[in-house]
Amino acid sequence: MAQQHEIEQAKDWVAAEIARWRTVSYSRLVEHEGEPVHVEKADQRGKARILETQFFWDDRQRGDIRVTVDVWDPDRRISRSVAIDAFIRAADGSFVDE
């Protein structure tokens, strides 16, 4: 039960971060391309988690930028995401596939 609650908490963190980055302009998102942003969080049991936001080109023409946010456990040697979500922003400011 506790693990499910921690997953829900991680999903909430991801959703909030996605919502925040969706308000940022295309040009500002592009400024972060190739430079992940890491924020350390603590779950309800005090266990460290990393909230990671990555920015990378989604097409060969370098017109669309994908923003991915995930939460993972830094204590695991090979860590998979606890929660993950993404969006793609086009150069005209629209969101791709929405």
Report on the structure:
- It is a single chain.
- By secondary structure, the protein is an alpha+beta fold.
- Helices cover 28% and strands 32% of the residues.
- The chain is built from two helices and four strands.
- A hairpin with a 7-residue loop joins β2 (48-57) and β3.
- The longest helix has 21 residues, at 2-22.
- The radius of gyration is 14 Å and the shape is elongated.
- The model has no long low-confidence stretch (mean pLDDT 90).
Please render the helix and strand layout as text.
Layout: H1 2-22, H2 26-31, E1 37-42, E2 48-57, E3 65-72, E4 83-89
Antiparallel strand pairs: 1-2, 2-3, 3-4
How large is the radius of gyration? 14 Å
- Strand portion: 25-35%
Total DSSP helices? 2
N to C succession of SSEs: HHEEEE
Indicate the mean pLDDT.
90
Kindly report the spatial arrangement of strands forming the biggest sheet.
Answer: 1-2-3-4
